[in-house]
Amino acid sequence: MSTQTEAVPVVRYDGGSLNIRHATLSDLNAIVALENEAFSQDRISRRSFARLVGAPSAAVLVAVEGTLIAGCAVVLFRSYSRRCRLYSLAVAQAARGKGVGRALLAEMERAARERGCEAVSLEVRADNEPAVSLYRRDGYELLGETKNYYSDGATALHFIKSLGQAVLR
After folding, report:
1. Which residue ranges traverse the bilayer (predicted)?
2. What is the pTM of this model?
3. What CATH number did the domain enclosing 59 receive?
4. Which of 167 and 48 is assigned the larger pLDDT?
5. What does each C-alpha distance from 91 to 28, 39, 52, 65, 78 come to in angstroms?
């Protein structure tokens, strides 16, 4: 089982290094600011982030470039399910197009496998073309859509990806 204090990999991109690690409560201001920058509505609140950081049913991963948080991924786990849910993936405007989202996805999938998950599901706004493209490129399959899913009436696309053989510990 993955812990919140484990060593984390360093992913190289664009001539620099990106450190992906589990978020801590000291990251709250930065991840809330990132969430507010990335999404105009349907955001995760500071209170919810504080509850999710370190929760056994969640993993909050941050991608750190130098001293700045360039991205954040939130994945939710259920003890009775082999499927986890990518709840949020946000990348700072200045870091977009540099592989941050893809690196966070890869690390999230690794963490999910370690926890025994065999699949990841997610919802994404149908009009979020960069995110939809990222998920498709990374092997996520479209399951369907739900109209009026988001608070502004936008449609959600539902994706799933098989993780293959999970690492059982």
Report:
1. 58-77
2. 0.86
3. 3.40.630.30
4. 48
5. 15, 10, 18, 12, 25
